[in-house]
Write a structure and sequence with these properties.
By secondary structure, this protein is of the alpha/beta class. It has a single domain, classed as FAD/NAD(P)-binding domain (3-Layer(bba) Sandwich), CATH 3.50.50.60. The chain is built from 16 helices and 26 strands. Strand 11 and strand 12 form a beta hairpin. Helix 3 runs parallel beside helix 7. The chain is globular and about 65 Å long. Keywords: FAD, Flavoprotein. Belongs to the GMC oxidoreductase family. This is Glucose dehydrogenase [FAD, quinone]-like.
Amino acid sequence: MVWQPINLDQACPGSTNLTACSSFGYVYLDLLVRLFGQTSGKRRPPETEEEREFDFIVVGAGSAGCVVANRLSAIGNWKVLLLEAGDEQPLVTTVPSLAISLLQSSVDWAYQTEPNGKSCLARPGQRCSWPRGKTMGGSSSINSLAYVRGNELDYDTWAANGNTGWSYKEVLPYFIKSEKNLNIAGLNWEYHGVGGEQYVSRYPYVDRPSIMMTEAFNERGVPIGDFNGENQLSTMQSQTFSCGGQRVSTNRAFIEPVRDRRHNLLVRTNAEVHKILINENKQAYGVVYKRNCKWHTAYAKKEVIISAGAINSPKLLMLSGIGPKYHLDELGIEVVKDLAVGENLHDHVTFNGIIVALPNATSTKVSNDQLLKELFAYKLSRRKRGPLAANGPTNSIAFIRTEAGLPAPDVQYQVDSVTWQEYIRQPTLYESLTIFPSAFYNALLPRTMNLVPKSRGKLLLNPKDPRGAPLLYANYFDDPTDLIPLVKGVKFLLTLENTKAFKRLGAYFVKKPLKACKNYTWGTDDYIVCLARSYTTSTYHPVGTCKMGPKWDKKAVVDPQLRVYGVSGLRVIDSSIMPCAPRGNTNAPSIMIGERGVAFVLNYWLKKYS
């Protein structure tokens, strides 16, 4: 498999002068493919005839699925089949600064939301992009790499709502179990682990503007500290899912090290599952999947475990007859179990448009020739230490409370990078063509995220093509109070301009209204609301579509041990089970869910596990 980047011929209109659409954009992407387009793992031996019977079938080799497959295959007499719809993980995914270059490429499902008239208003068709990983490692192979767990209150609330076994005290050991923290010095050992498979570390390279953001937040009263430890109300350069300046996805952490050593683990890529087989006793006993244009059937003697993520897990359940009866009836799908699959969809809503410009002396922008040299230097170096070994300013993260009485943070800041003169001319087109490394820029794009959104959407099968991309109703700002933390958060953000940190680097806010909001005065509440509604963007944290809950919760799809209600031998173990999104990025919590969920499986079948 050779990685395929975004198709510039299709993405670039003839009327733009963005650098991404210039001849250099084509040269750059061609070089990326040549240097990093191949797969990152070992060359696989020729495959033998497809085996058909296993103890466990795991659908989806993403953030949770790789953990599940690793733990199950550790039991030598259990045969485990891991099915991934995407291909092997390409090398380009391992370069931290190229994370944004992966969007709309061959490793991205490239989903889009449906319009609701309240958000994404300046985007084509009023639709927001929802990237999801389509390769070994899933979204852990294409995300922004930040290691963030959420707040203690998140998990205690899950437990208080009837999800026994999911309090913070009970899930913390599962965060620690898989963590291999390479920078444990200065961190509280009670909250971190060093013996797991998943590498967690700081980047070997941090640029000056990134440090400026952390120092500015600190000047404004946000303490520097570990937001994965005792107090989330803090700021720091986030730790990442990396080692030695390279991304470590769950595929590289949990599957690649054991894939050739455990003969009881069979991994199949390019294998998209279209149906869960369920017998007349409502017991799951296998799956039907398509691979290399051929249909295959695999059988599970013990359990089928769905770890396809917050979009593809509910889609698969509904294709298999598990979902809202009214919707399945509309599509002529035989109903196996009437459950609220696809409901409770939500995401940490944010938006773009607040720009912090940097003068030439502190800008990290380089010439085209230097950019190409940096690509060669990273590729050829054994020790990855330059700008590409980090993700630009993206790990400049802070958490605040916008009201003093709140029990936990309601706003998170995370910072993107841009060339602001190009961005301000065509913001939506610029954001759809983020092909260049995040390390080189002349402006910061700090994003204010609402950590506690009240708006809820839903996912439905597409009646025109039920097996194709589902209909995603993100429903951002359906509850208008979701705008309040964003406005307050931006007001706090704007005060950073007066800090010594900003002044030392000559940083300043670009106070020119963007096109969709030109009728508003820059910096006012109305302008901020206009930006939020017009330039809405996802934080890529969709969750909740196979909600975990007790029996009395009418919206629950799985019980607290992640078993699908009304269907035996079937579990969902991924971010779709989250009743409510944790306060922060969702990759670390998804890995924890993999650990916690598979522990329930092991406990059931082994009758002993701790």
